[in-house]
Write a structure and sequence with these properties.
Blueprint: E1 3-8, E2 14-19, E3 25-29, H1 35-47, E4 53-58, E5 64-70, E6 73-78, H2 84-97, E7 102-105, H3 116-127
Organism: Flavobacterium beibuense F44-8
Protein name: DUF1508 domain-containing protein
InterPro entries: YegP-like_sf (IPR036913)
Length: 128
């Protein structure tokens, strides 16, 4: 199962990544001014990924990647893969798992973990 993770960039734009079931980033979206734009793109991808084009490319150093687009508009760029076969496996994983992908929203900057001081102070107290 894959996962979409929405977050906020330092410049204030929103983005999302699609991660594999092992937690590795498969692709990263373009920057969006509104979080709702990210949500609409994710919804479109999950509803019918076959509407989208996976345009395969290679870097001058021989790494392989794809750009996810619809109607000529590039919406996301993949991570770099060492071989064309690995690139195709990444695309296949998207097609297979995107319809069941969860969406996590970390764009508000709220941590789901307790403050570091609280965790380590409690550990020190237990050790005493």
């Amino acid at each position: 199962m894959g996962m979409f993770v929405i977050s906020k960039r330092n410049n204030g734009d929103y983005k999302f990544v699609f991660t594999s079931r092992k937690g590795k980033t498969i692709f990263t979206s373009i920057g969006c001014k509104q979080k709702s734009d990210c949500q609409r793109i994710i919804e479109a991808i999950t509803e019918d990924v076959h509407k989208f084009t996976f345009r395969k490319n290679a870097t001058p150093s021989g790494k392989h990647f794809f750009r996810l687009s619809i109607g000529g508009l590039v919406l996301a760029t993949s991570r770099k893969y060492s071989t064309p076969l690995m690139l195709q496996k990444g695309i296949d994983e998207i097609i297979k798992y995107v319809i069941t992908a969860e969406i996590l929203d970390f764009s508000e900057g709220e941590s789901i973990f307790p403050p570091e001081e609280e965790v380590f102070l409690n550990e020190e107290a237990k050790a005493s």
